[in-house]
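From the shared-data thread, chain only:
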Amino acid sequence: MTPKVAQFLDTHQPATPCLVLDLDQVEANYRSLRHVLPLATIYYAVKANPAPQILGRLTGLGSSFDAAGIEEIEQCLAAGATPAAISFGNTIKKASAIARAHALGVDLFAFDSEEELRKLAAHAPGARVYCRLMVVNDGAEWPLSKKFGTSVGQARLLMPLAAELGLRPWGLSFHVGSQQTDPLAYAKAVGEAAMLFTDLTRSGLDLRFLNLGGGFPTRYRADVPAPEAFADAIMKAMTDHFGNDLPDMAIEPGRSMVGNAGVVSSEVVLVSKRNPDPEAPRWVYLDIGRFGGLAETEGEAIRYRLTTPHDGQATGPVVLAGPTCDGADILYERSGYQLPLALRDGDRVAIETAGAYVTTYAAQSFNGFAPLAEYYI
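Structure, as tokens:
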């Protein structure tokens, strides 16, 4: 929790649940990535948090943007971004969205199938396109390799087809998985992409672009490697495989850009000792759960750090759950959470590092609960 966020919560005591996010921390994260990877263009992954305050701050810093849908493209343009600074990075797009984006001036599109490629040719003629490869997501706490990407062999066929269809085959991309904790995952993926990149270039395609995707982690309960570790692994792999003839590099940070800038302030609704066994955990119910924005607790994949007014006192094991009448609304049951024995209903609990993938995951009115409020300071 940054000092600005702590002061805001202490001074205003906003109703819970709410997200409070420090825009200066977002800027610091952006500048840090720019410093360690100066040769890469940053395309902020808008889906992480599309708040206009964030998009406006990043536009002013010169960021580009990775958009997952036409709505995000329009949000970026409304925040002052130019069409040239936007990549339509979702490989699954409606024809109407492709046409609308192209009409707005967006000229860079991702694909990973022949069907999507032909759709792009029909609705964004002449556009620059890049093919997303499927790579191993080992080391990622939120893997993405199953739904997206294609094989190297298929990409070898699709890229020449793009040229035949009147598109501009611009390059390749991959994603090593969200909250990737192994810097070498990027090195391995660069090596795989570089071999195909070189082969396609030798075959006559004028490729210019390699998009290394997102995945850069932020710290939750456990330490993660520093940005420098990822930058070193990436640049070593790039120079090993491309020498001095580096393609234009892109990265798509989302979580690492906004995660540690935000805190969710929540309230304890109930603390219940449901099992008389003294070794059994207490159940702690918060006023925010999986349907209120904490969807990434699915499978207990993302494990947020929690702070309470009673930290430093004796603790005991807990199961953490949300407030809804849905049996799936359980956050953590197996991850070994311990909270103070003094915790009671009405206490506030801070869910740290919650600036990414929370607000836009919140259901609109499940059980009648309104989405959490947002404060950008």
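The longest strand covers residues 262-272.
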